[in-house]
Amino acid sequence: QLQLVESGGGSVQPGGSLRLSCAASGFKYPYYAIGWFRQVPGKERDWLTCSSGGDNAAYYTESVKGRFTFFSVNATTISLEMNSLKPEDTAFYYCAVVYFASAQSMCSMKSGALDAWGRGTLVTVSA
Length: 127
Description:
By secondary structure, the chain is mainly beta.
């Protein structure tokens, strides 16, 4: 069974940086898309960046373009480098996987359509 574990969350001042990681294990198929999402309590989970498995190229939602960077560290780990953080970036951050989907299609899928989610890591941006 696919398991995803996020790490690297924490508290940071506005303008600061954090690097999140997601360790994956138990892939069932070699063809998948993987990405980062975030959720503010009481609101819907939003996509941030989606990529094809093993690729460093990624799609980004407009609000994080130029500030967040997706990295495929190795076959089982992805990272999200977050710079110039703003208070509105405060949220729970999740990684997720969907099999047999392109990165572009993953970004438009509803949360329930994805195959696996991590438990999330909290990022707090405040002065």
